[in-house]
Amino acid sequence: MRPAWQTSTCRCQLALALALGLGCGDEREAPDAKPPVVERDRAAEASGRAERFAAAPDWDTLIELLGQRHNLARELLGPHRMHYVASLRTGPVGVEADAPLPSVELDQPIYERFAVTDELELRWGSAPGEPIRLLLEQHNEHEHGRALIVLGEQVWSQLDGREWLARPLESDLWQVWADDAQHAVLDLVELAGPYADLGEVETTELDGRPALRVSLRASEQQHPDRFVEPPSPWRRWARVEIGAATIVVDRATGLWLSAQIELSWSFEDRAGRELRGEARFDGRVEVPDAPPLIRPPADASPVPERERPELLRQRMLDGLAGP
């Protein structure tokens, strides 16, 4: 295709020739035709990535596969169900998990302990081109959680076990939540990355789908280029150990279908005291014969609207007042 300035010049010359009565004969150029629209074959692209990884396994390609967004799962897997349980714990070394935290001197940082078991279920019930049918539930033992149901253009949400609230679908926030769930395995693999190498990559089958079983093992050397820090950096000062890590990747799409990961790490807090953490993850993605059941909640209230004085004034006066 010609650059835009060349196309504009050609058209100006043609217009000038017509205005002067000059004939262009058979050599007159036809206006540039629009380039053909080439539709991406996302299924072929996804399969190609998985096959490249199978032929020559490498860390960057594994990260690319695990980093694929949930919209690809919606398109290529169709109706499916994801479920995982993730346990995360951090606390001071030498203090039992059920023992009280030690006291500290005045003006010294306190000891901190963190423990949560997070359970998530995601159901997608639509075939490509059909209206949205999504259920996402996530909660932990501390009575914190969220739930979301999207059916067509209507959405219901629930936070921390409170009442369900209903509203029209007005944003794509549900896609962010779905991507967060899809990337749960990626988050742990990135944590292990600086201290891990690829183990065996074997062909296998899961629920009748050809797949690749990928394992991680402890690396003999550190890989500093793989550090992915959270908003509050700490990983560069930690040492991560791999207890077990096995991931099953769908060979047709490159999406993860199963993962069992156990990691532990150690680092120092602000006072130079050693802390130790651990993570355990067990997750599955299933593609059932029939779409998973998704229904609206039995009882829900409209989302409360914030009062807007100007709109309220117009509504009450029904246009009687001037601007």
From TrEMBL:
PROSITE patterns: PROKAR_LIPOPROTEIN. This is Lipoprotein. The lineage of its organism: Bacteria, Pseudomonadati, Myxococcota, Polyangia, Nannocystales. Residues 287-310 are annotated as: Disordered.
